[in-house]
Amino acid sequence: MSNRSLGLDDRLHSYLMEHSLRESAVKRRLREVTAAHEWARMQISPEQGQLMALLAELIGAQKALEVGTFTGYSALCLAEALGPQGRLVCCDLSEEWTSIAKPFWEEAGVAGRIDLRIGPAIDTLDSLLAHGMGGDFDLAFIDADKENYPAYYERCFDLVREGGLILFDNTLWYGRVADPGDDDADTVAIRAMNDRLLQDERIGLSLVPIGDGLTIARKR
Ligand SMILES: C[S@@+](CC[C@H](N)C(=O)[O-])C[C@H]1O[C@@H](n2cnc3c(N)ncnc32)[C@H](O)[C@@H]1O
To answer: Cβ(101) to ligand 1 under 6 A?
Structure first.
């Protein structure tokens, strides 16, 4: 297959950022604070956050789910896009990492929209389903432990309405998905998830090469 995608060298990436990124001061400061964190690379890129916010706006999303919040950058992007009536349920294991997010959510005026649930995300998603919230959500963003992506997908599929979106982060996994010599458990899990999504006729699908790969699935 011929490759018609542009490779982005640093110069072209800088151009893209300078000519399309609209990032508020509070988001930029949250990125700067997270940059000092030993796991900073887990944070999504600002241009990916902007794309996710635009997708949420495009479908008029008001209720969303996030699996994997870390220091809260992607949550901030989504919560802003949901508007004043919005509600975002965030799932994470770490009280410590998510507490970094809170003052930034407050400053941005979206803290009241965010319902942070600390604990294994599978339990939180099961609890939402048990409380009759199947089909209630417009959008879900999956960005936690890779081996559980299939479990998160099936639950988010049930929680999202028809026409809603399920977004998956890291679906190119630093390019490792295409390296036949890489059989690391996370690489194998992402590959299996990608293949499963390709075969799943219940969704419309695109894998966008932004950041570390963002898969967009639309529930039919
Ligand atoms: C890649 S980071 C999320 C990055 C975040 N979306 C952002 O843009 O800043 C993954 C997060 O998933 C959380 N996590 C890992 N395993 C989890 C689990 N089983 N349940 C809930 N959260 C989990 C980690 O604590 C971590 O904060």
So the answer is: no
145 Cβ closer than 6 Å to some ligand 1 atom: yes
For the Cβ of 43 lying below 6 angstroms from any atom of ligand 1, the answer is yes
List beta partners, residue 169: 214
Question: What is the pTM for the complete model shown?
Answer: 0.98
- CA dihedral angle for residue 99, residue 100, residue 102, residue 106, rounded to 10 degrees: 160
pLDDT tens per residue across span 41-93: 999 999 999 999 999 999 999 999 999 999 999 999 999 999 999 999 999 99
**Whole-number Cα distances in Å, 12 to 16, 17, 130, 176, 211:** 6, 9, 48, 23, 14
* Pocket test residue of 66, 92, 152 for ligand 1, highest count of atoms within 8 A of CB: 92
CB-based contact 66:41 (threshold 8 Å): no
Q: Are 48 and 210 in contact (CB under 8 A)?
A: yes
Q: Is the dihedral of CA 26, 208, 40, 154 positive or negative?
A: positive
